[in-house]
Amino acid sequence: MQVNTTRGFLWSDVETRTLLNIWGEQDIQAALDGNFRNSFVYRDVSRRLGATGFERTPEQCRVRIKSLKRQYLLAKEGNLRNNGQYHKICKFYDTMERILSNRPALDPQEFIDSVAGGEEAGEGLEEEDAEDAQDAYSESTGECPYPAETEVKLEYPTIPIPIPVKVTVGINSTSVRPHNSSQLASNLSARIPKRPRKRRAHFPMEKLMEQFLEQSVHAEDNFYRMEEQRLQAEDTRRETEHTRELHMLQMLGQMFSSISSTRAGSAAEPSKTAPPARAPVFSSASPSCKQGQSGHFRRPSAQTDCCAPKSQLLDPDPQAIVFERYYSSGSKSHRGMDEDFLSLVKSIVPPLTSKKHKGQDGRIGIIGGCQDYTGAPYFAAISALKVGADLSHVFCTKDAATVIKSFSPELIVHPVLDSPNAVEEIDKWLPRLHALVVGPGLGREDSLLKTAKEVIEKSKTRDIPIIIDADGLWLVTQQPSVIHGYHKGILTPNFMEFTRLYEALHHEPMDISDRQRSVTQLSVAMGNITMVLKGEQDLITDGGKVITCSVEGSERRCGGQGDVLSGSLGVFAHWAHAASAAGVGRSANPSMVAAFGACSLTRQCNNQAFQRHGRSTTTTDMIQEIGSAFKKLFES
Ligand SMILES: NC(=O)C1=CN([C@@H]2O[C@H](COP(=O)(O)OP(=O)(O)OC[C@H]3O[C@@H](n4cnc5c(N)ncnc54)[C@H](OP(=O)(O)O)[C@@H]3O)[C@@H](O)[C@H]2O)[C@@H](O)CC1
Ligand SMILES: Nc1ncnc2c1ncn2[C@@H]1O[C@H](COP(=O)(O)OP(=O)(O)OP(=O)(O)O)[C@@H](O)[C@H]1O
Hints:
Residues 120-143, 260-304 are annotated as: Disordered. This protein is an alpha/beta fold and 636 residues long. The chain contains 26 helices and 11 strands.
């Protein structure tokens, strides 16, 4: 597993709970209890955590556990159990209590004394168990507890390893010979006479303690917040570097293709259907420009494009040329157009290389999944993974979560959608997500739609591509302003959803005889958002020209095909916007390119699955075709 060490320091509750569950497992506790060298144990903890989708280094896991133990002990020592304050200090008190109650070596009183530096601190045992003994040991010796090259070990030594213990008596500290941890406590308690604890006035002391505990938790929070900021800055730096590298690679690619097409051009007459990358298509106003339409595939700013400076027009990128050819070729067959657009999609697909780390090719979030619908979010999320995203998160209701998890261990499932602080829980993940798909299996319950709406608002402020499908479109029909004019928004209605939305915005029945016109009108009414009207042919527009995807599909109309489309589109949207930010095909609207990619892929999957299974084809069969369909369309 490749570890992303730049991962944020802030642990979400779900992540912490998962960590605690792993840490509390019997074999882990047994391995920690009595072993001084616990680095390999935390390697295993980190590995198990990674398997649930949370990526943390062994050191991060160890530090987190240490901090939780401190909070737990502070809460316990503060005697806050009775007045109910303990949760303020240690949110996971009950879980910690359950786990730690089986670890006799831990003495809260002495731990708290050493933390608080109270008058008894000098006489207490400083290391409460082998784990903390190791911390003290590494601090004193400066030894790194995690030799980076060591393989992850799955078996723990069964014989406890001796622990060198630092004992503090008065102001002098002496090292005693190694003991194993179980002998340690009894030996020490026999050797070190303990002073009777002083009696304290109960009330003010408790109050003081409470204040002190709150302050220390607060200080710790601040520390983690600062760490979070530092790591986020590091993340941003890496991503910028990655984008720059991608840009360089793509520029090189364009240079090579331009060289080869120049060679081909010198050998033969330039073909009209395949002009060289630098053909002077824009050296004078193109026919489409004369008609007031942009040759570029940008959101409709026809006038600005037509009036663009000549230098810009003389230097079009190959994507613009493809769109230009399409717009000016009235007689071109759909097959020919599809091929042109497929080449655009190919240019945004990131190369597979061993230089990337997990997450760089896409972390996609799906908002959906409720008691009635568990298949839809699964189809969308698994499709995103199969297309090439590295991580796929599903944010669903509690009762849907177990079901969705049981469909696939590949998905990261958050049972938060119906929790009272759903927006807050999802918001924690937004900085990590590259695209959001809202709606598959969301249902139409008011509270869930409200949550979806707030998550959309938050995602817009983060400039994340948002795909809205299924019940998400129901929300848009009620409140179009939620996505109106968002340049990275894409709506994917089927005919029914489209009709509803059209009538909500235009207050009149739609003219079904001219779908191209209707889809353009609706896109314009929605602030030129990219719109995909699915059907026998998929119509894609951002309010300017309509492009048609007519890659051969199938005659099967089983439920869930739209979910494959929306999940795939999440990934394509991320790739297209990342490529555009890196300077690839700036003149094309990335959302349109992405939409064309996702529609083609879904239809191709459908076609391949239908060839194999005929009438019995289901969405699961389509998903199995994603790999080979992708290869056929975009990698051949
Ligand atoms: N396995 C799962 O978990 C799946 C869960 N899903 C989830 O279900 C939720 C509700 O989505 P939805 O699409 O069923 O609801 P809605 O928009 O009310 O449509 C209902 C009616 O509209 C009609 N109709 C539909 N298409 C049409 C067309 N092209 N042209 C003409 N008419 C058309 C048709 O009417 P009928 O013919 O039955 O009269 C249809 O019955 C949503 O969350 C979604 O994600 C799905 O993803 C499937 C897999
Ligand atoms: N008549 C058709 N012929 C060929 N392909 C079609 C046809 N209708 C839809 N499709 C394709 O199926 C995919 C899903 O479209 P569909 O209309 O089934 O979505 P949906 O109703 O939203 O799906 P879901 O069942 O997931 O809600 C699209 O990629 C579309 O191209």
